Amino acid sequence: MNTFASSSADPIIAQNLVRYFGDVKAVDGINITVKTGEIFGFLGPNGAGKSTAVRMLTTLLRPTSGTATVAGFDVAKHPDEVRRRIGVALQDAAIDPLMTGTELLRLQAVLYGIPQAQMKNRASELLERVGLTAAADRRVGTYSGGMRRRLDLALALIHQPTVLFLDEPTTGLDPMSRMSLWEEVRRLNNEGTTVMLTTQYLEEADQLADRIAIIDAGKIVREGKPQDLKAGVGFPTLLITVPSDQTERAKAVLATFGDMRPTAEGSLGVGLRGGANVVTDVVRKLDEASVRVQHLEVNEPSLDDVFAEATGHRLEGAKA
Fold first, then answer.
1. Tally of CB atoms within 10 A around 201
2. Which of 294, 190, 223, 310 is closest to 261 using CA atoms?
3. What is the mean predicted confidence (pLDDT) over 20-49?
4. What is 26-72 written as a DSSP string?
5. Collapsing DSSP states into helix, strand and coil, what is residue 234?
6. Taking the model in full, what pTM does it have?
7. Higher pLDDT, 106 or 5
8. Phi, psi torsion values for 274, nearest 5 degrees
9. Which residues face 301 on adjacent strands?
10. Which uninterrupted H or E stretch holds 195?
11. In Å, how far are 95, 108, 220, 282 from 146, measured between CA atoms?
């Protein structure tokens, strides 16, 4: 990942950004600064406000209040200038299934005013870059989900943007396709592209982002480098599963070893003040209280722990 420094020319700046849909406040006064050359992760569950925020930053939605500048231009006052300088790959992008990959890239080039002399070479370069050369002349309707996502990325890069927005880029992809797309994002970033990535995947944010903002119910609840946020949680989490009729006894024992932490339904969690070294003591105390442990695991602090500490609940799909 790149080294970056803050400046007055930060490519993405949002100040007190708010968006209502009727009486529903989808984005609630968020403040974001993305620095030149970084990958900024926007992490949160479905419905948290991630995509709404991105749509405001990419000029697809007008803010109800607040301001935002992208690539140096106000998104409300100069949307055309913003669009010329950004690439956008949205989760629900519509792609004509009857066109081929080559045809779609050339059409995108025309829309951005790229000269015809450069159009063919640019399309070929991008198809090769995202591993779609062999499928270039196939109709997009025959592409797999992973191939469509890679084509989305190529379309977003046709005009060589300085800022790239990726909204849930790997949702629904198999692990190999996901890792392939991660590698391409890293390559783009190493070449100087600033990336804003929205995701609900903890590993994706942890693997790719220089900094992340965690959003829940329209508000940013934590922001910082992933390693710093995890370190701030402190103690590892002990997760146990016990018979349902022994839950209260188990809670009483666990509470003597640290603060209880939010967990998925059916399990209990505690932040172990003494670290992994006290697990044996926990098991002995549970046994003395006639609690039968069905499953036990110790996890070092994760972004899910950060999210749970900030919101009181776990991120949807975190276990997966």
1. 21
2. 310
3. 94
4. EEEEEEEEE-TT-EEEEE--TTSSHHHHHHHHTTSS--SEEEEEETT
5. coil
6. 0.79
7. 106
8. -90, 5
9. none
10. strand 194-199
11. 14, 20, 30, 45
